[in-house]
Amino acid sequence: MWPPEPPPLPALTRAEGELIDRYLEVVDLLGRINPARGRDTYSGLRAAQALVTKAVELREALDAMHRRGESEVHAATLARALRTLDGERRSGRVAVPPAAGR
Asked: Is this prediction's pTM over 0.85?
């Protein structure tokens, strides 16, 4: 038996797709850097080094949107795309985990 099909991504411009992809890459790296969830300094260091490059790519995606005249962010559509791409779980790794016993 196959797992259920994920919902389709909403229609996005190429620049919006780039924004979502770069944003999730940054979120994944921040989750790896999170000291409340980390296992060792080396993996955090490697993630922090990669974060510099990914932050530049995120800035470039936003700059491309701005240059193309995409000055409005369609938050509801982009949120749906983030949910489809497991953004809630991925961004949850950035947060401080609940205290033990709660």
From this structure: yes
